[in-house]
Amino acid sequence: MENEGPRYLKDRKGYFPKDQRQRTRKRSREMEASVSSDLKKQRNRPGKMAYFDEVLKYGGMRFEELREFHKKGGKIVGTLCVMVPLELVNAAGARSVRMCSGYYEPVHPANELLGDAGLCPMVKSTLGRKMVSSDPLIDLIDLVAGPATCDGKMKLAEILEDWVPVVMMNIPRVKVGETSSDLWVKEIVHLKDRLEELTGHPVRKKALKEELSQWNEANQYWSEIQKLRRSERPPISGRDAMLVVQASQFDDIRRWNRKVKELIEELQRMRTKGIFAGEEGAARILLAGSPMIYPNFKIPSIIEGSGGTIVTDELCSGYRLMSDPVLVDGLSKKEIYQAIAERYFFPCSCPCFSPNDERVRRLKEVIKAFGIEGVVFHTLRGCHLNNLEATKIELALREISVPMVRIESEYDEGDIEQVRTRIEAFVEMIKARREYHRNPILEDVQ
Ligand code: SF4
Ligand code: SF4
Fold this sequence. Notes:
Blueprint lengths: L17 H23 L8 H7 L5 H11 L4 E4 L6 H6 L3 E4 L8 H8 L6 H11 L11 E5 L3 H10 L5 E4 L8 H22 L5 H26 L7 H10 L5 H20 L10 E7 L8 H7 L3 E6 L19 H13 L11 H13 L4 E7 L3 H16 L4 E6 L6 H23 L8
Helix pairs in contact: 2-10, 5-6, 6-7, 8-13, 9-11, 12-16
The structure holds iron/sulfur cluster (2 copies).
């Protein structure tokens, strides 16, 4: 059903003064430049990272490409969650960009519109970006694909419809039973229909298989990087790994694959020469919880600046973006849609699902495989689902004697010192624990 008119912002014209737009743009650009400059100062940073900096740069090279594409009549689809299959968007001839925002300044216009609605800052920032057109990408988006996951995301999609057409995807939040799977397959096919309508380009089996093979290749490269991160001293920092995988959500996936291959070769050379990221003896940390979207790298920067290395994460803005391929050889077109639906649904351990035992199971597996010494569980203020699951995860980690610290943060810099103090104490505790377990007196104790 078509949206009958603005629901939340009846008087769009003149609601936001021009200077607010300019201020938001200026501060967003400054924030991105400052985070990028800190990343570039990291010790032993691979030269090949420069490409990924450029893809995510505010108004950078990728924006120019997308603007050209749009100018020539190409369509751009904004995605609100990792459960939207980008292969499908590409096979319909459109380009995709992840809309979730890591910029701090756009939170303010959303607060002005909604008051204290208790939403997480990522949702507010994404909305604020659109409200004041705070960056060059946002106004190029022709259609938004928004799975109705948590309350914040669902209402965000509804509000965005005041500006831009939205395909709301009805995601079954209870994973058990066949009805869940059937509903999600229908939603994926519905998305395909809406994409075809948008681009006037039917999704052909051959094109879809080609896109799937590109994304499967990307999955393989990502698992190569993960393998390198597993080693005693990883050659890449956690922040850089997150930057690389997040760039895939904006970039041309064929080029991303080429550039990641080059990066992997450089990382292998670095390892052979004994060049590593981070300091020797750094605490091996796993970062969990709410998504952390560039340039909101506040928590990862604090961890890696306090004697820790993020060896891996379980974020939908990190590791989870590319952990499962879609295998379609020999399948009919109908079965391919089924396979895509399953890939984006069953392995997803977003806290919006219940039961979500998969999350704890995977977390324990990853902790073992990566030699994790401690978990930083970060929640964005207002992310009730992650806040709830933190308790369950902390209990599960106690069973395997892995310490966890819970951190809550906002989209501003006011809490940096407080968070730093807690993380420094956590890292110290991990290092002290390591020494304690190395104590020779304890070696013979059963
Ligand atoms: S936290 Fe869940 S709803 Fe939000 S983007 Fe990640 S997977 Fe999607
Ligand atoms: S961070 Fe939490 S509240 Fe925000 S969109 Fe994701 S699940 Fe929803």
